[in-house]
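Quick look at the format.
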Amino acid sequence: MYTTFFGLNEKPFTITPDPRYLFMSERHGEGLAHLIYGVTESGGFIQLTGEVGTGKTMLVRTLLGQIPSGVDIALILNPQLTAVEFLTAICDELGIQSLKDQSSAKSLVDALNRHLLEVHARGRRTILLVDEAQNLSEDVLEQLRLLTNLETARQKLLQIILIAQPELREKLAQDSLRQLAQRVTGRYHLEPLSSDEAFSYIDHRLRVAGALMEIFEPAAKREVYRLSGGIPRIINVICDRALLGAYSQESRTVDKVTVRKAASEVSGQKVKPSPLRWLLPVLGIGILILAGISLWPNLLGNPPETGSPSIVATVDTSSEQTPLAEASPDQVAESSIPDREPPMPKVDLESLFSSYTDSTGYGALLARWGVDYEPAAGPACSQAAAAGLRCFFQRGTWNNVRQLNRPVVVTLTSESGESRAFALTSLDDEMATLTLADGSVAMPVDQLTKYWFGQFLLVWRPPNNSYEAIGPGMRNENVRWLRKSLAEIDPSYLAYSSDADFFDDELQQRLSAFQRQHRLKTDGIAGQITQIIINSILAGDDTPRLTSKN
């Protein structure tokens, strides 16, 4: 629902354990190292514990994707079984057939022992991995201990890894299970994320999902951490709901208020702001009172004489002034020359806010692509997606907009705080053109800058009508498109390859050179910005361009 609106390829905060989204915090790295140790060593138990939602199952899925050759895994996901049922499940996982008596623990253990000896003779190892091990009964735990007695003269035949909630530690502390506890050769407890790790975790999952902008405001991330306690699963639930909330409000960013509403909805209880929210104003008032007391003697003195310097600094906010971020040294020097040339005419943009709606801006943008925008039919980006187009939302400068060279919707904010989405269809160094419902209006870029804080949205058509970041190791038609496009831009680059649809090292080097040439992030991955630049360079006359004068 909200993925297209935010420019995402998929939902970033699902609670399904997907190894692609593994965030390797310091704690998760150590936890995975313990699991790998359990796979590579033999004998005894390896124990990994953690609170609900800390990422234990994610580590297990990651481990399963890294199992070396020569290792067999028996994975038990539902350990709430009797001892006989548990042994049967192990045999089923290992493919042990032709059991004479499946109701006898001895028969099952004998069959398992024969199998382990056979695979050991072939140079293979066997790992038993039990998830949710806190649910194991004492009888099953005792049976697990006995399985560690299956061995040759030199090594154990079965390595056991237990993944569990903290209750397992309490259970193994019982005197009746002390023999099992003594055989645990490795223990690690997975703690929740720290605040910095939680912020990086949110950014990481958004990047994996294809985000190319900051969606969660810093204050929103802090609120997510406060409400989740750093537990990844709770972070996922809150963030997913917050994205849905921002989408319903047609907001391109998630603020802390939206996060609190999301947390209230998922918990079923009203979430209160942090006490610091009220503490800081109180401290501020106290500081002002103290400052007033210190200044009181001066206030009782004589007023300053006429002509004395004022304590109030005056800032020139004239619309003709060139912003320092975009002004060259020559421009700054020339600006001091009075009456160099007549000022450009001003446009009363404030008057447009009352009569202009966002649908007008989105409609003007989509019309350039031949799409009839219907406000009642849903978000503009959803309608664009139905036509094979993709929205790209970004925060940047006028130079960024010029470089992409596409008509865009810019978010302008009036002096009263009202925001509107205006269609920007032409832009050069001095003038910009906004398309309105009944025509267009040209105005100086410097004047427009007063109302613009860097937010813009463009529409583009991805190759093969499906966007994905194109990176090393991939093999598909998008790789073929990238190779062919780079060859068209630079004839010295030969696009032909026996593996034209494979992203090899040579293609990555060529792409990195292209990115450096165009002052893009040089990461050797063709993300949205890189693809848009390539698309703009090679696009035909039927592709809308920002510089077109219509």
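Next, a different chain entirely:
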Amino acid sequence: MVGALLEKFPEGYTPNSSQVKLLKNIDQAFQDGYKFVVCNAPTGSGKSFISKTLANASDEPSQDFKDLITSYTAFKIDQTGYYTHEEECEEQRPAGAFALTITKALQDQYESLFEGTTILKGKSNYISTIDSDIDVEMESLIMPKNILEDHRRRHKCPYHNDRRDALINKFAALNYNMFFSLPNHVKKRQYLICDEAAELEDQLVKEFSCTVNFEMLSKMDVVVRPFYSKNTANVVKWINNLLLDLSDRIDELRDIINTSNTNNKKFLVETRKQIVGLRNLHSKLSLIIETWNESEYLFETTKDGITFMPLKVNKLSNHLFKYADKVILMSATIIDPSNFCKSLGIDSSEFKYVEADSTFNAKDSPIYCNTKVKLNYHNLKRSLPKVVEQIKQICEHHKNDKGIIHTHNNTITSFLSNKLVGSRFLIREPGTRNEEILQQHLSSLDPTVLISPSMSHGVDLKDDLARFQIIVKAPYLPTKDKRIERLMNDDFHWYANKMLCSLIQSCGRGVRSKKDYCTTYILDGAIVESIVNNKHKLPKYFIDRFL
């Protein structure tokens, strides 16, 4: 019965009109037999509640599956290299739901909203309970296998405890990388919710890409054979030879640790770090070889090394989607549903598109555009001084407000860092992390202004954390990138959609709830032109904000 999902809405909360409509449409789509639902919902519309509702509506994992996971036997590997209970796990019916996110912040959001939600992060996020000086990822290189397994079996490892809970509970939030790293036989879910789905293509490219750094390998005494030919067969042969060399060096380093009598902790830790690095590289290259025939892989050589990446992910996406009965692709920035699904290998007959109504008052968060200056590669340096004066005027107008300036590239960031002086401006310098200046901004009692090229998504600047924001330049992808250049030449609409998607994401950083408000200033006239040309594709809630 359509509307049954509403009965599973998180206890203690009341759905708004937009959520009611969205859940009814999702319910209908699944009843009509669609595997995929593409859901376009504005920032702050409560997408997390949709995820939790679906999880509540899912089946409980079977007791047999829970017993296998809890007893740790689902992760034991036999002498042939296969998991001992692989078949038993795969025979279990899919149950429960995974919400896949991009950032740790989104995972933390799920945990804070819904009591009992399990979040599972990478091993490097967990401190070892064996040795507090290292993370869990290093444990397997320190302890004998039998002792380590006993430690985990007795549930003393924080990472393995969270992994167990994530698999046996109905709902867990993981990032995409964590999902891919799980053994395949424990991944199956009834519902797979892909949050920030507009970024999914990029996540898949990242997952199936790898960089071989010659200098790093040389320091680890791995001899890299010369790479001369761009013939596909020779490239595959080169990768396979490197895989053999990596395996040999990993074995050598393990022997060094096992036979060493030294108590030099620094030496042992550094050696173990080398093993982890080589093992991760081996895993990445193995995945590329495994999927070589599923996608056209690009490879780009520099003096420092070689980078491999897939041109398209339309066939690779099945390595994600095949583990779920139903898939919900949620985002606030899906520009063109048909092209979006095509890029992910989803046939037009397989998905239903639904759109949530905005609960925001567009007039409270207007977008002002400057049409006089168009910033491009040729006139950027000449036009930036004019732009700086505009930024100074806006910041003075909002002298008592916190805000953010989206630069979208390091050139503009560097220029502004020399022109906008004073403790008010917190600038993301090259080589630093967003988290560092973001924390300063959050904790400061002064009206600080963030300046960064990469805070268009995954950053929650609610309420007084951003009463204004400035978008300096159209966030086009860099055409110097070999993959982007190929795809742009094949389909310029894809390229334009990527820019518009990033633009909408940026405009949503300062408006996070129904009562929130934020004024946005766009300083690149080229954006206005693109919006006019693509108005029919853009969400109504976004267009309504323009003045």
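The radius of gyration is 25 Å.

See the schema section for token definitions.
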